[in-house]
Design goal:
The chain has 261 residues and is of the alpha/beta class. 39% of the residues lie in helices and 16% in strands. The protein is built from 10 helices and 8 strands. The protein has an 8-stranded parallel β-barrel with strand order 1-2-3-4-5-6-7-8, surrounded by 5 helices. Helix 5 packs across helix 6. The protein is globular, with a radius of gyration of 17 Å. The termini are close together.
Length: 261
């Protein structure tokens, strides 16, 4: 089982320290971000590459191009900047998230966006990871919808799924697509009083014995189906971000996940 760390798991750690912590934890693959923390706007790509190489970790992705499925305004230029940066820093892929504002986006628009970004990715040797968001206000909630758009855009391996255990649960999905998946994000929700429809990013903590999202069952299903990619820890809750010893908390969650498999 390949475990990875998204920088949002410890956003207060500077990039170099984050990479070094990941290596100590045995998670030799990491994801950087353009939001929290905004590595892309504050670090030169060459310095990001050097920090990862010095720590002995591989950069999986930049997270995220948003909203990838509304191909208008400044999005094409933003996509090109992100693709350039990803290639220069040694990242393997861009995470691509759909519009999440309560407005529908037609299937044809999703396909058109994929058609437009494909040459940007292919020319730089990058992959695009389409991440359905399970929120009720999301314009692309399910992996089935994402696969339909990827297939119509010409399924040549440029685009793969990003399975997020939180969003899988919110969308009420029961189907897994391990052979179409290149990355899995894992996080837990432990608040016993929350209804599924009320679960938000702010509730996403590290996976432990109180997890309500059935992370272990989801991981087992993906592995049983032949998934061999990384599982990346991506907690959004401020109580995780504010931990004085994020390394100890992450080590505990990693141990729990490993023991459960």
């Amino acid at each position: 089982m390949r475990l990875a760390l998204n920088h949002i798991a410890a956003p207060k750690l500077p990039l170099r320290e984050f990479c070094e912590m990941a290596k100590r934890l045995g998670t030799t693959e990491v994801e950087i971000r353009n939001d929290l923390p905004d590595v892309m706007s504050t670090w030169k790509a060459a310095d990001v590459k050097a920090a990862a190489e010095d720590a002995g970790v591989t950069i999986l992705t930049i997270n995220a191009l948003y909203p990838f499925n509304v191909w208008s305004g400044d999005l094409p230029a933003k996509a090109e900047r992100m693709a350039d940066y990803a290639a220069a820093c040694g990242a393997k892929a861009l995470v691509m998230c759909p519009l999440n504002e309560g407005r529908a986006v037609a299937h044809s628009q999703v396909v058109a966006a994929l058609d437009a970004i494909k040459p940007m990715l292919k020319s730089r040797g990058l992959m695009g990871l389409v991440e359905p968001l399970g929120f009720p206000v999301s314009s692309l909630r399910t992996k089935r919808e994402a696969i339909a758009a990827i297939t119509e855009a010409g399924d040549d391996g440029t685009f793969r799924l990003l399975h997020d255990t939180f969003h899988h649960h919110l969308a009420g999905e029961t189907e897994f697509y391990p052979q179409r998946t290149a990355l899995v994000h894992i996080s837990g929700v432990t608040d016993p009083d929350l209804l599924v429809g009320g679960m938000l990013d702010a509730h996403r903590v590290l996976v432990d014995a109180h997890d309500r999202l059935e992370n272990l069952a989801q991981i087992k299903a993906l592995l049983a189906g032949g998934y061999a990619g990384p599982f990346s820890f991506e907690p959004f809750a401020t109580e995780v971000h504010d931990l004085t010893d994020p390394e100890a908390a992450l080590a505990q969650s990693i141990a729990f996940v490993k023991a459960g498999l």
